[in-house]
Design brief:
The protein is an alpha/beta fold and about 450 residues long. It folds into 2 domains: about 200 residues, 3-Layer(aba) Sandwich (Rossmann fold), CATH 3.40.50; about 170 residues, Rossmann fold. Helix content is about 35%, strand content about 15%. Strands 3-2-1-11-5-10-8 form a 7-stranded mixed β-sheet. It has a 4-stranded parallel β-sheet with strand order 14-13-12-15, with helices on both faces. Helix 4 packs across helix 8 and helix 9 crosses helix 14. The N terminus is likely disordered. Bound molecules: guanosine-5'-diphosphate and magnesium ion. The site of guanosine-5'-diphosphate (GDP) has 17 residues, from helix 4, strand 13, helix 14 and helix 15. One of its GO terms (cellular component) is endoplasmic reticulum. This is GDP-fucose protein O-fucosyltransferase 2. Belongs to the glycosyltransferase 68 family. Pathway: Protein modification; protein glycosylation.
Amino acid sequence: MCRLLLVISCLAAIILSTAAYDTTTCDKLQEIFSLKENQLTKHQCPKSIGKRANTIYLLYDVNPPEGFNLRRDVYIRLAVFIRQLARRKPFQNVRLVLPPWGRLFHWKSSHLHQYSLPWSQFFDVASMRRYAPVLDFSEFLDDISKFGLLETPYIQVQNVFKLFHFQDMFEQGVFHEKFQIISECRKEEHLHDFLLQQPMLWEKNFTCLRYQGSVNLLGDLLRQQLNHAAMQTNDVKVFAILNAEVVLHDQWGDREFWRARRSMRFAEPLVKIAEEYRMRELNSNKALERVQRPPIWEEERPFRAAVGGNYLAVHIRRGDFARGRQNTTPTLKSAATQIRARMELLNLTTVYIATDASGMELTNLKAYLQRVRMRRFTPESLAQKALILDGGQAIIDQLICAHARHFIGTFESTFTYRIYEEREILGFLRKTTFNTLCKNASRGNCEYNSIWPIVY
Ligand SMILES: Nc1nc2c(ncn2[C@@H]2O[C@H](COP(=O)(O)OP(=O)(O)O)[C@@H](O)[C@H]2O)c(=O)[nH]1
Ligand SMILES: [Mg+2]
């Protein structure tokens, strides 16, 4: 009897506690940032979140013309920084806010809505969050509304820092880390950054800053801000950094870099489409490829036994590379000759081409690759294209290249570099990954991409 009463009272308590508050946002926030102290009193969740002292949101954006894959690298610089910063007082409640994706220069499908896209369109944000406290922009709006700030139509940004390089990086031949306010700064000239076009943001102060050094120097800048008399309250603070690409990695290619990189898994729908394509068109599947892919990145271990699908994958960067980097970018004819030679050497009969080439260039490439089994991903319907958008199509290309038996990329393309990294995570032998198309098929004077192996 006693036991029965206990069970009934437990059930009642569970029903009461789940009914007492909006479970979706509250549970999510608890799970995200492990607000453990709240777990016993879930029904008070919004209030206790409101008590987070010194909550600081760091917004950022990158120079508008920069492409998708440099932006991914800038994210890693900031994620590593924020993770470490959050361990130190008074930054325990710092959050990095992911900038909405504006329409990038390379996203050419003008009929599609590709404006203000969340990171969750392309990435598994929950996976990234297990590395560092990051929020998609809409999550930031939700989160900050817990403080009642959405009662007014604006979110006040205490200070927007627009970063510039120093003109002279070396003082008497020495590189010093430093930043310096530029007194002549006309805000009106710098409002084209996509972040500032978010209508709910209202910048209280706008500061132009010369900046030279690693991302850790941002810690000094934030500390300086917090020490400012006007800031010494427990209120929520929002800062923004524009041109965050000026900030350098603390350590490029170390364990922390790779942890942040591994946490950047792609959004599940894109992974699935790439998988189905490999199965259908390339006769490949997970069992054959034998790559390392545990359900969560935290379970990945040093591994060098991936086999990959039975195809060669090549990333042929055209567009601005073909026009502006003629000394290192091969002609299509030269690329085709190199592809044939590599296929023969490796005894492969199928080549997968990832490229931003125009329709005309593709026709030419096919002509140069006659009698070669060439494959290229295109969305199977307009509906699928509207779902994945130009950015997702590029990621599917990267995923298919990442799972190939052998890969060749383009010199100094960040698109290629992200494929190298993906293959390092999946566990391929280096010689199957770090390959570069040469300018000339003869390989004389060839410039190769750098090799950055994975570190655990
Ligand atoms: N779908 C697809 N898009 C590509 C490919 N190569 C380049 N692009 C597009 O062009 C952009 C290139 O810019 P970015 O990401 O900065 O890489 P980078 O300029 O090569 O260093 C990509 O983000 C894509 O939008 C490709 O192989 N496939
Ligand atoms: Mg680029």
